[in-house]
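ok so for the tutorial part 2 we go from a plain amino acid sequence to predicted structure tokens. step 1 is just haveing the sequence, like this:
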Amino acid sequence: MSDPPDAGSESTQFASENSPGPTAPDQRDPQRLVRHRDFRRLWAAQTLSMLGSQITALAIPLLAVVTLEASAFDMGVLALAASLPAPLFGLLAGVWTDRVRRRAILIGADIGRAVLLGTVPLAVFLDLLTIPYLGAVVAIVAFFGIWFDVAHA
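step 2 — the prediction. this is what the tokens look like for a chain of 153 residues:
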């Protein structure tokens, strides 16, 4: 006959380590993160960045068609400009991101995109907006987007 396990045996210790113990009261508080200033700043910045990206994805092609009366070929050129930086700079962005602080890349890429996209209304106001200009802006914004996405992953 086997003896029952005593209090110091391995099976008793293993069971007590895996059993859920009491949780600190603040760990179950759903608003715990909202109280942290750094989290609120990150959340606000991410929300603003995502909102800007979605508006840009809609506004640039709409601007090209309505304001510049872009043809199907022009729209294809804009689509090419938006997608070309990924295969050209994607691997380079990954290697470079591993060697630099990610926060600096995230902030720099967002600021770069905002400044470039801010030039579009200025170009409309000054009557300088053209398809080549819009294509260059889209390509450079996509370039910054690649850096941002790689650093964010």
